[in-house]
Inverse folding.
DNA sequence: GCAAGACATGGCGAAATGGCCAATCCGCCA
DNA sequence: TGGCGGATTGGCCATTTCGCCATGTCTTGC
């Protein structure tokens, strides 16, 4: 395989990897609806504040969220409008898999 | 957070996680165009055959691919039609991130 | 200045992931 | 029935991920 091709798949995988965590999916879901600061997200996610902060750093690193600093607060929001497409794909796999399992049981 | 909600995000994360690997993204890309057997995929991915087989097991487990056995061969193919939506989302994040970096350099 | 609150970062142990080799399983055919 | 090629599974090790604690940075208000 070409080096360039390999790099491309690694870049894509990095983005997918950033989404591949329950807490980060929840955060993306919340941030899609409204921007929130770290302490608000921490309360929703129910994890240590440092943990949430690191999750946000991961999302920010790949460009999935943006930050806006207002005084001491950091407001995060989703940076791309394509997330609904991603979520609906996941949801569709989830649904078809459920159907498969039901079909298998019959 | 409700137990049920947490489980839902975990189920979604499991699917996202299955996609979050360069080799598996490549395989999904190939299998979207045509069904292929393990040895063919092994050649494309350039990894050990057992490694490829395990990657396929992961994709199959979450319902992203299906298998069809023909004699000694196992033909894999993509099981859902929504993958292009997923890929285009990734691609869009990739593009906007590149733009961001260029903008930052100015 | 400094105390307090909001975030970010370093570090560390536990757990999960990824890759290869080796062994096994399975369908086919001599 | 024995052997062979294709595929899966088990085992093992290196690497990465995850989560918390402790600490550092920065802003605000006294």
């Amino acid at each position: 395989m070409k080096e360039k091709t390999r790099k491309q798949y690694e870049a894509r995988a990095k983005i997918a990897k950033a989404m591949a965590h329950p807490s980060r999916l929840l955060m993306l879901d919340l941030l899609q609806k409204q921007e929130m600061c770290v302490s608000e997200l921490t309360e929703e996610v129910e994890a240590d504040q440092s943990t949430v902060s690191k999750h946000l750093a991961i999302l920010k690193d790949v460009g999935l969220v943006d930050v806006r600093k207002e005084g001491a607060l950091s407001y995060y929001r989703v940076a791309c409008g394509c997330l609904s497409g991603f979520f609906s794909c996941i949801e569709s796999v989830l649904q078809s898999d459920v159907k498969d399992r039901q079909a298998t049981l019959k």
Remarks:
- Chain A touches chain B through 41 residues (CB under 8 Å).
- The mean pLDDT of chain A is 93.
- The longest strand of chain A covers residues 65-70.
- The two ends of chain A are 43 Å apart (CA to CA).
